[in-house]
Amino acid sequence: MAAFFTSFITLLGLLQIFTTTNSARVGIVAPKRHGFSLDLVHRDSPASPLYDPTFTLTDRAVEAARRSIWRSRHFASRFSGGVSTKIYSPMKSGSGEFLMKLALGTPARLHWAIADTGSDLIWTQCLPCESCSGPKMTMFDPHKSSTYKTQSCSTSFCDDLPTEGKYCNKDRLCGFHYVYGDQSYADGVLSKETLTFDTGVHGTIKFPSTTLGCVHDESGNVATAEVSGLVGLGGGPLSLISQISSAIDNKFAYCLISYYDTNSTGQLKFGAGAEFSGTGTVQQTEMAQGSAQGTFYVLTLDDVSVGGKKLNVKFDGARPTALGDAKSIIIDSGTTLTLLSQEAYDPVESAVASAVKFEKVEPVEGFSLCYHVKSSDLQGFPSVTFHFAGADWELPPENAFLLVAEEVVCLAIVPSNVGIAIFGNVAQQNFHVEYDLGKGVLSFVPTDCSRV
Q1: CA angle, 51 then 56 then 60, to 5°
Q2: What's this model's pTM, rounded to 2 decimal places?
Q3: How far is Cα 433 from Cα 254, in angstroms, rounded to an integer?
Q4: What is the enclosing helix (H) or strand (E) of 346?
Q5: pLDDT at 418
Q6: Would you give the distance in Å from CA 19 to the centre of its chain?
Q7: Over the stretch 134-184, which tens digit does the pLDDT of each residue have?
Q8: Which positions are annotated as active-site residues?
Q9: Sequence-separated (6 or more) residues with CB below 8 Å from residue 267
Q10: 226-240: per-residue pLDDT in tens?
Q11: Cα distances (Å, whole numbers) of residue 23 to 109, 243, 254
Q12: Is there a contact between 329 and 292 (Cβ–Cβ < 8 Å)?
């Protein structure tokens, strides 16, 4: 873990840079052929600024379940009258699961941010902001950066903002205003700034003129004192992935560590670095194309197996979802649990109940099926396989169940009542997951992510 902090401290030195323009929208300083990787820190890791040493196993599980449910509702709220072609609004920084570090401006200043595949806009708290939470000394100060530029209402990036959250302020600058379900809000201006990342082996890498949001007014602790912003990794035009797409061959990947591993970091990989270099069998499934997904990465779920037995889930009996197709499911790194429609969840719970011989107990808050166990090794619990179009993603027991208290294990799959199905990050832990947006394909392969 010491290497993690040492590598990021080098950001403050800003090594010598050789700028070329390899992307249509932003510049990049490192040769395109290398790709690059960044550390991902789970919010509950001791290395995270959000770490709470007083949290018990149950506290952590309940909070993760609450965030999963809140996030699914937030996703659903981003659709109106069916599928939206402008799915976009940013998430609260406190709602994410994995953190990354980046440096903003010239000279660069280091910040923590949520890495979020369910959002597009890159944003951070900016001075002046009297209403913002947290100490002002940690906030980004645009006036101290020589590369910061606000964006007028006539820019193409301003056009990329959703109509319902966009406005032109008195200075004719492109503004945004987002209100969340709990009536908290974030208000700011669209800007361009230099982003700097420390890639370790390949040194620092800069992306000049990256479009981001500078939040100057907020209510309800949209950000936190420790994590002042968010990096959107979604499919919309303002996400980091879209802005640097040609520089990274339109592909990225991540490898998420185990829910219980507090001593390691995961990896977020871009370009050539996103390609799997191991010896396992890689499987691929197509992602939804065009207006069906917008911000989100959407897969097609054909069936589910428990303990190797297919359940023949009747998706045609499920009510239409916010994504339109009852088989559509969002794959998301920022949601802990996996959520299925009630019609799809019921046969999974029934099959698990038949396969598991332990005593059932009252479910812990946020979960639906829990057992009393005498050991934490999950022996006696079945695998669960998600049969996506053309690919079978088998979850070993540790990816399908969570130890949520002493001697209590719960199914990490729960029913959704908001018309949104999500394949969460516990299911994805210790898999190399690659998003090839050029080909519209998602690839995955089992990997020990603590050793990547």
Answers
A1: 60
A2: 0.89
A3: 6
A4: helix 342-355
A5: 87
A6: 29
A7: 667 778 999 999 999 999 999 999 998 888 789 999 999 999 987 765 667
A8: 116, 332
A9: 37, 38, 39, 40, 254, 255, 449, 452
A10: 788 889 999 999 999
A11: 24, 8, 22
A12: no
